[in-house]
Amino acid sequence: MTAKIIDGKAAAAALRGEVAAEVARFRTAEGRAPGLAVVLVGDDPASAVYVRAKGKATVEAGMESFEHRLSAGTSETDLLALVDRLNADPAVDGILVQLPLPPQIDANKVITRIDPDKDVDGFSPVNAGRLAIGLHGFVPCTPLGCLKLLRAELGDLSGKSAVVIGRSNIVGKPLALLLLGDSATVTIAHSRTKDLPAVVRQADIVVAAVGKPQMVRGDWLKPGATVIDVGINRIEGRLVGDVDFTSASDVAGAITPVPGGVGPMTIACLLRNTFVSAARRENFSYGKSL
Ligand code: NAD
Predict the structure, then answer these.
(1) Is 44 a known active-site residue?
(2) Residues lining ligand 1, judged by CB closer than 6 Å?
(3) Hey, what domains does the chain have and what are their CATH numbers?
(4) Does the pLDDT at position 1 exceed 80?
(5) Potential cystine with 137: which of 6, 127, 224, 247 (Cβ 3.0-4.6 Å)?
(6) Residue 243 φ/ψ region, left for φ over 0, alpha for ψ in the -120 to 50 degree band, beta for the rest
(7) Exposed (0-12), middle (13-18) or buried (19+): which is 284, by Cβ within 10 Å?
(8) Residue 288 — pLDDT band, cuts 50, 70, 90?
(9) Contact assessment for residue 141 and residue 269, using Cβ atoms and an 8 Å cutoff
(10) pTM of whole model > 0.90?
(11) Residue 185 phi/psi, 5° resolution?
């Protein structure tokens, strides 16, 4: 193995520390804590684990966590009414509705209803549009975490060739736009891309956000490439990414492990977005490195 391992856990701990320090300053100046409302509908066990982890991290950063657990049979009207109440609540700076939602609820309708200035997940059409045209808004947490890891590893991304594999609205598309914003030359590859290994071999930066265990192999990579593995797949009771770590780490210059790479950055970026929302709403100035 020759690649440097990009330590997402350490990067996330550092970001969380920075957020906590800013939150402490905010509380002293504003006399209140930033607040994150998390809404969970139903009892999907994975979603319950995520919601618990988000609530715990929010409190650890010195912020207030408001958890709303609704039954699986909740109507769309009732969920929209809750979103309206949270939009109007001055103690709530960020609103997150955990996906997936049960079939009787149109997730797009719910996400669109969240006040874009409280949409700390960055999934609303307004925030997607802001990202596309380079306005301040909220960027989805996983792609933001990937961008932060890449900047920390490579510094200036300008002119670098980046291939993002996956075009989801949650990861691939926003990440491609973020990389473009940093002046990388960006290719988005997806399930219909022809000769994916040849496309990947051109790239200085490879991001895999596919959901196919160990799909990207070492012999697809340009030697020295920086590899960000977003995938979380469970095989034989263990977690693996979308990149075949063993073969890739013989060729890459640097690579994120799974677990311990992108995953921890996602929650850290959610805390960051929540604090930034509170700061924007109160005109509170904060460190640019966030
Ligand atoms: P998705 O299913 O919405 O999108 C997958 C994308 O991969 C699609 O755009 C599709 O075109 C592309 N794809 C599918 N098969 C392909 C193939 N053979 N070759 C090339 N492209 C192909 O998934 P998503 O929500 O973007 O998530 C992707 C992965 O990232 C999943 O494993 C998910 O669990 C993981 N994820 C991790 C985090 C985190 O915090 N680390 C957050 C979100 C998602």
Answers:
(1) no
(2) 142, 165-168, 170-172, 189-191, 193, 196, 209-212, 230-233, 262-263, 266
(3) 31-115 (3.40.50.10860), 141-263 (3.40.50.720)
(4) no
(5) 127
(6) beta
(7) middle
(8) confident
(9) yes
(10) yes
(11) -95, 115
